[in-house]
Amino acid sequence: MKKYSFETYVGIFVFIGILCVTFLTVKLGKLELLESDYYTLKARFTSVAGLKPGSSVEMAGVTIGRVDSITIEKKLQVAQVEMKVLKDITLTEDAIASIKTSGLIGDKYIQITPGGSEEVLKSGDRIVETESAIDMEELVRKYIFGKL
Q1: What's the rounded Cα separation, in Å, for the pair 128 and 138?
Q2: If you count Cβ atoms within 10 Å of the first and of the last residue's Cβ in the chain, which end, N or C, has fewer?
Q3: pTM (global) more than 0.85
Q4: Which pLDDT value is given to residue 102?
Q5: What pLDDT, on a 0 to 100 scale, did the predictor assign at position 146?
């Protein structure tokens, strides 16, 4: 009888451990299983060099979302970025999405500059005004060869 109670305790302990590992995997992996606190916005850029899925989306220096996916739009031959933004953040149709660099050679992120329009963007809408990343290598090349 004592042997079965010990095995039961071990089984419960292992079950709780598996639940904890699953919870941490979902939270640290930023997976969304049930309800999402985000809505989706899209933006087109001529260049997204250095930007990757999972990069942050910021407004006024505060992280308000993350980049979900980056694809190429074949018809226009531009990069399309799909980002998830917190539901309680409202952006207007004249907002500007810019790709910025944190630090001199740091990670790329998307900086949102809010607009003043009355028209609010809904899930699935596109931010029309965008600014691509500055190519530092191209700037240095132009400076060195005197074309700047």
Answers
A1: 25
A2: N
A3: no
A4: 83
A5: 75
Look-up of token digits 């600014």:
131
The span from the CA of 35 to the CA of 33, in Å, is 7
pLDDT at 14: 93
Q: Tokens 């993350």 label which residue?
A: 66
* Residue 147 DSSP symbol: -
Q: Where are the domains of the chain?
A: 1-31, 38-141
Q: What is the 3-state secondary structure (H, E, C) of 60-122?
A: CCEEEEEEEEEEEECCCCEEEEEEEEECCCCCECCCEEEEEECCCCCCEEEEEECCCCCCECC
Give dist(CA 148, CA 145) in Å, integer: 8
Regions of the chain short of the pLDDT cut 50 = none
Q: What is the pLDDT of residue 147?
A: 64
How, if at all, do strands 126-127 and 56-59 pair? unpaired
